[in-house]
Amino acid sequence: MPELAWFAIVVFVLTVSPGPGVLYVTARAVSQGRLAGFISAFGIESGEVVWLIAAATGVAALLSASAGALTFLRFGGAAYLVFLGIQRWRQSAKVEVPVPAPLVRLFAQGVVTQLLNPKVSLFFVAFLPQFIDPARAIAPQVAVLGVVYIGIALAVDTAYVLASSALGDRLLRGRVAQKRTAQASAATYVAMGVAAAVSGARP
To answer: Please, which pLDDT band fits residue 202 given cuts at 50, 70 and 90?
Structure first.
């Protein structure tokens, strides 16, 4: 039980701290409102479920043994963030008011963002296995840890969505403000991508 509490604390710190997932959810909530923020958050959580399945089936252990695979995830995630930033900037420049992205695309981008998130990949390949007893069945242990992780992540993302959408309602009343906000989120995506690429794969 103390170990589970410690795991919950670490998960809370991980999910509440700014990163690609938090950035994606807040940017979408600010620019497109509460529904878009929640759809984006569900995409982020779906990506985390994939990582949990990978941990339960041993894929994460294989990745942790491969420095090349971790490097690929780090640079892949960085490149994807830069791509989203460039795409967002182009959308803001093409029209006077940025066109809202379809909800299906928001969900899919959320999944990919979290699958390639260096912070999340390191958590599942390097940290989560420390809470698993190899002498017991792996899948049930991962399931319990997964429920804790997803529950905390959903609560944190819900708070971010509600706060960001409320802020967006105030910021985005004018067309110029909408365009500037879209450009600011685009620049932040690119900055996060560059930071992920140069920071190195550290837990």
So the answer is: very low
User: Token digits for 128?
Assistant: 């989560």
> Could you tell me the CA-to-CA distances from 122 to 18, 41, 72, 163, 171 in Å, in that order?
16, 20, 12, 28, 35
pLDDT band per the 50, 70, 90 thresholds, residue 203: very low
- Is residue 77 within 8 Å of residue 118, measured between CB atoms? yes
Task: Name the average pLDDT for the chain.
Answer: 76
Asked if 185 contacts 84 with a C-beta cutoff of 8 angstroms, the reply is: no
Instruction: Enumerate the H helices of the chain as residue ranges.
Output: 2-16, 20-32, 34-57, 59-64, 67-94, 103-115, 118-122, 138-171, 175-199
From CA 180, how far away is CA 195, in angstroms rounded?
Answer: 22
* For helices 103-115 and 20-32, angle between their N-to-C axes, nearest 10 degrees: 170
Q: Are 31 and 92 in contact (CB under 8 A)?
A: no
